[in-house]
Specification:
Layout (H helix, E strand, L loop, with lengths): L2 E9 L2 E10 L4 H4 L13 H4 L8 E10 L2 E10 L2 E12 L2 H11 L8 E3 L4 E4 L3 E7 L17 E9 L7 H23 L14 E4 L1
Antiparallel strand pairs: 1-2, 2-3, 3-4, 4-5, 5-9, 6-7, 6-10, 7-8, 8-9
């Protein structure tokens, strides 16, 4: 059984959706409903493998978008411990700025840095994955003082706090998959002009970078 408490607030030029889902213990069917159904569809393994066994599992979903702003935040908690978090934000700057932003979001990234095929660039660590998605807005693109358009991109970061997955390679694939699904949703939400480079299935995490 799933109990959902949701609120939808419509503001000037944007909407804010907030959802909290209570998941029944050991019921994988419920997992597909988390975060507005954005993260998983038919394969719930990337979520269930990374949730520690706990009688109380909850998920929350914050989805806010308006001209020039984006905040998507999906979290899954077991008891009082946050097990999974996937976020997407619209940022400004180059891939160098994205690298700096990513380091600020996962300063303690463990394990060798690897890559996978998603967005313009994507990196993987043992408990983290990050994707850079180029995103020129369909209108109201930010400009600098000289009137020149500022480059914008969607930054997606996925993090697993627990140690539910015994194989690091499997966890890397799970996080790459979850990050890719949120990247896909964010790209659609912002109507980015660039074509989307996101694999349909689980991205293959490649060699160390």
């Amino acid at each position: 059984m799933v109990t959902v408490l949701a609120a939808l607030v419509v503001g000037v030029g944007g909407t804010l959706a907030v959802e909290r889902t209570l998941l029944s213990p050991n019921t994988t069917d419920d997992v597909a409903d988390i975060c507005g159904g954005t993260v998983v569809s038919t394969d719930v393994g990337p979520v269930t493998r990374n949730i520690p066994s706990n009688p109380s599992v909850t998920s929350s979903w914050v989805d806010y978008a308006r001209d020039g702003s984006l905040l998507e935040n999906c979290t899954v908690s077991a008891g009082n411990t946050q097990a999974l978090r996937v976020t997407a934000n619209l940022e400004r700057g180059s891939t160098t700025d994205w690298e700096r932003f990513t380091r600020s979001q996962i300063p303690g990234a463990a394990g060798p840095k690897m890559t996978f095929d998603a967005g313009d660039r994507a990196v993987s660590y043992e408990k983290d994955a990050a994707i850079h998605v180029p995103c020129t807005l369909p209108r109201n693109q930010p400009k600098n003082d000289d009137g020149k358009a500022i480059t914008t991109y969607v930054a997606v970061v996925a993090h697993a706090s627990g140690a539910a997955v015994e194989e690091n390679d499997k966890r890397r694939q799970d996080l790459a998959y979850l990050a890719s699904r949120v990247a896909e949703h964010a790209h659609s939400t912002m109507r980015c002009k660039e074509p989307l480079n996101i694999p349909d299935g689980v991205p293959k995490v490649g060699s160390a970078s």
